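Re: that chain you flagged

S.,

Sorry for the slow reply, it's been a week of failed gels. I finally had a moment to sit down with the sequence you sent. For the record, here it is as I used it:
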Amino acid sequence: MANSVNSRRTYSSPLRVGQAVATRHRVLAAAWELFTTRGFAATTVGRVAALAEVSVDTLYTTVGRKPDLLRAVVESAISGTDDTVPAEQRDYVNHVRAASGATEKITIYADAVAAMSPRTAPIFVALRDAAQTDPDCAALFTEITNRRAANMLRLAADLRSTGELRPELSDRYVADVVWATAGFEHYVQLVAGREWTPEEFGEYLRKLWGRLFLTGNG
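Prediction finished late last night. Pasting the C-alpha cells below so you have them in one place:
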C-alpha cells in the first residue's frame, strides 16, 4: 500500500509542475497581449485571468498583483522565457563574450536585439506609458533603464578588450550610443514608423556600430 502511495506521489509531482508551468505561460501570454493592446490602466487582472482561462485566485498565486504581473511580463520578454534570466546567463550574452573579434561581437548583439525587439518593444511602450501615472511602473521603468545602461557599459568594455575600439571613444560614449540606438523607442520609430523589418533594423545596428566604434571603419 505504501509503495502504491509513493508511486502516485512520484508521478503526480512532475504532472503538477508541468501544469503550473503551462498555467504561468498562459497567464504571461495573456497579460502581454492585453498590456500591449489595451495598456496597463485598462487591463484588469480579471481580464487577464479570463483570457488565460484561469481563475483570478490562480493568477494571484501564479504571478501576483497587477504590478507583479507587468514585471513578470517585462522580464519574460527580455529573457525569451517565462522566467527571469540575469543578463550574464543569457545565451546571446555568453556568445558575445566568447567571440574573439569586435565585428563578431557587434553582429551577435545586433542580431539578438533584432530578434527580441518584436516582443520587448511593445511591452516597453506599455511600461513607459504606465510609468506616467503609476508609481510601481515608474520604479520598474527606471530600474530597467538603469539596468540596460549598466549592461551596455559591460558590452563597451568587452569591445575595448579586443583592441579594435577607436581609442578616442570612451566606454560611456559607446555604451550610451548602443543604449539609445538599440532601445525600444528607436525600434518603434523605424519598424512601426517607417515599416522596416526587424532584420533590417538588426543590419542597420550592425553597420552603424561598426562604422562608429571600430578602427578602420571610418
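What I noticed first: The CA atoms of residues 41 and 167 lie 47 Å apart.

Talk soon,
D.
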